[in-house]
């Protein structure tokens, strides 16, 4: 196992206790709970870990504190204590049964430092810190929220969460975890959840007004499916403020772009390099997908504390030659146009488009970027201070690249992605700027 700079000979062993169900501390609403169309097409489990260690405070009562606070926070977030099911319209909904979230106590055979610095997802090692429902064949057999608290020999502990993305996006998940922490510290919740998702219901009748290329099926003329049969390699690439400035200067060289954000230039740079590394044919169509937070872009804007997905996928679509053979500014321009695309009418059209087609975003010849760099998961505090490390256990799909903020000031961005081994070698060379 790599621990940042040196290898550690310890293999993490975790002994899990018997799982229990944590129900809301008070009686809550029962019955069906509506999930919007923005929730429907990202119903995947997301596994994250938070590592805590306090010099003054050991981990003796960590599980007890976490469990008690979970029971109280579920009063506010009661759908998380329910179970996913399918409605008569053949859509996902939550049956608010109050059955409870799954909670597991566990013990590790080593110190918290021995699990490494988590700069890249490691499903094998870090996966041991998140409880998997035995025999669950699909998301309907997995509770929306599963929590595991693993105590380490050094007095630290790790909270491992498996939460379904259909329950919330990054902002919603962050608000939930932070509220749980506030209750654990005996504080009132700063941002109470706004539970009514019917505010994002499709129009009646639905009227999609855009082409929505995010769902477009692309023909794989480069045979990259074959390449993906190779062993996958996962790596993290750090872009500090200086590197980000260099990229921006490069994007502005030909005067085609006068200004761009770190996200725009980094997305363009990664998309271009990945297309090149995968040796896509010049006329291969390639797509970039990324989520834009629609909370303030809706008219009227979504209420604060909205408990659900307020993100909308936007896209850029072109041939491989267009981005590989042209200066970086061309790819940056495409990213900027994709950001501009997300208006109130575009988002309402996306909701209506799903209503009429039930389409899922296609990932052939596609890079899907998900950005966590603006999410303050690192500020979560259950009474043991902020986490020394927090992050994902694995990337949800092989086409996904994750942007995480990094470093003391959080001004650097860590780019995590997986590629077939041969493509990764080329990609690493292209990262040298």
TrEMBL record:
GO molecular function terms listed in the Swiss-Prot or TrEMBL record: acyltransferase activity, transferring groups other than amino-acyl groups; rosmarinate synthase activity
Pfam families under this entry? Transferase
| Keywords recorded for this protein, A-Z | Acyltransferase, Transferase
InterPro entries, A to Z: CAT-like_dom_sf, Plant_Fungal_Acyltransferase
Superkingdom of the source? Eukaryota
Family as reported in the entry's similarity comment? Belongs to the plant acyltransferase family.
Q: Know the name of this protein?
A: Omega-hydroxypalmitate O-feruloyl transferase
């Amino acid at each position: 196992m790599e621990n940042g700079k040196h290898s550690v000979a310890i293999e993490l062993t975790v002994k899990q206790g018997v799982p229990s169900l944590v129900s809301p501390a008070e009686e809550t609403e029962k019955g069906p709970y509506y999930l919007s169309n923005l929730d429907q097409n990202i119903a995947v489990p997301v596994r994250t870990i938070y590592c805590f260690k306090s010099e003054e405070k050991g981990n003796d009562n960590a599980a007890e504190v976490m469990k008690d606070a979970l029971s109280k926070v579920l009063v506010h977030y009661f759908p998380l204590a329910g179970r996913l099911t399918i409605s008569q319209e053949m859509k996902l909904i939550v049956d608010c049964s109050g059955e409870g979230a799954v909670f597991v106590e566990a013990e590790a055979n080593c110190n918290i430092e021995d699990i490494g610095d988590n700069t890249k997802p490691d499903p094998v090692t870090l996966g041991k810190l998140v409880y998997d429902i035995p025999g669950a064949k699909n998301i309907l057999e997995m509770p929306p929220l599963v929590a595991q608290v693993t105590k380490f020999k050094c007095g630290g502990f790790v909270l491992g969460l498996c939460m379904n993305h259909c329950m919330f996006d990054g902002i919603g998940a962050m608000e939930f975890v932070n509220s749980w922490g506030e209750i654990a510290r005996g504080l009132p919740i700063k941002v109470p959840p706004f539970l009514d998702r019917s505010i994002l219901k499709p129009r009646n009748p639905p009227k999609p007004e855009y082409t929505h290329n995010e769902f477009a099926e692309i023909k794989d003329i480069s045979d990259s499916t074959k390449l993906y049969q190779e062993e996958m390699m996962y790596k993290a690439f750090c872009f500090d403020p200086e590197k980000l400035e260099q990229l921006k200067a490069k994007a502005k060289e030909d005067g085609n772009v006068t200004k761009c954000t770190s996200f725009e230039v980094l997305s363009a740079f990664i998309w271009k390099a990945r297309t090149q590394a995968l040796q896509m044919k010049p006329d291969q169509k390639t797509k970039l997908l990324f989520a834009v937070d629609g909370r303030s872009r809706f008219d009227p804007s979504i209420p604060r504390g909205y408990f659900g997905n307020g993100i909308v996928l936007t896209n850029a679509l072109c041939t491989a030659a267009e981005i590989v053979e042209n200066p970086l500014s061309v790819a940056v321009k495409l990213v900027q146009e994709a950001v501009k695309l997300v208006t109130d009418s575009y988002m309402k059209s996306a909701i209506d488009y799903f209503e009429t087609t039930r389409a899922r975003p296609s990932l052939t010849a596609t890079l899907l970027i998900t950005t966590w760099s603006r999410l303050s998961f690192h500020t979560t505090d259950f009474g043991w201070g902020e986490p020394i490390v927090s992050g994902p256990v694995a990337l949800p799909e092989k086409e996904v690249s994750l942007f995480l903020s990094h470093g003391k000031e959080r001004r650097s961005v860590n780019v995590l992605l997986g590629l077939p081994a041969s493509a990764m070698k080329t990609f690493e060379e292209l990262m040298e700027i």
